[in-house]
Amino acid sequence: xxxxxDNPLNLIKPFGLSSDEGRVYLDLLTxxxxxxxxxxxxxxxxxxxxxRLLDKLxxxxxxxxxxxxxxxxxxxxxxxKFEQLLIEYEQKISSLRQSLPSLVxxxxxxxxxLPHQSKVLYYQxxxxxxxxxxxxxxxxxxxxxxxMEHLSEFLPEKxxxxxxQTLVDRKVMxxxxxxxxxxxxxxxxKKMISNFSRFRYVDPNKLKINFEVLIYNDVYATxxxxxxxxxxxxxxxxxLAEMQKQLFDFVWxxxxxxxxxxxxxxxxxxx
Length: 271
What we know:
alpha+beta
């Protein structure tokens, strides 16, 4: 195992503890009930800060305390308390997920009162590439794509599959134009292939696709990932988006239809 995964402090921090909170908890876990003065000396943390850290740990029910003839003493709660913390986090996430549609709808109504403003957004690196492709999950109706490669060819498989599943959940149809006459299966989101995806082939001698392009809603997005300098642009403008949709559809209507050869999206030009 890695040093990181063997370090208890690194293992408990994801449960919402700061580094110093984790240090105090682990110190108490390996010691008997201790005074603030002893904790402060062992960890070389000021007593005032130790009090604040203990208050935070008590709020998480990770610290127990008792009063004896020498004053207040503190000890670590059973490690099983982390299971309770996880259950509480899961409940919060479930509640947030349920309230999300209502929140988004209310925020959209507030924004709808503003006049439409065109904007251009720039992204760089893998995280920028992921952001642009996450944004396309907001597509409504039809997503048009000039495709160089399938999403999972240049972004993590798990992320790519989540994007595809979200498009299916939102019932978004995708039209993809490609310079490839055939390709193997690429996804386990089989419902996307059977119900929401169509591919057509464009001869590269007529139109070479050397940038990935996404067109949806009022958005025209384009990016390249072939070079070390990943470069992505999103343009939000309804007139531009409408013109690009017309250009895409013009090419689409002249492109050659492709048929799927397997349930995972393998396809070839119809003969």
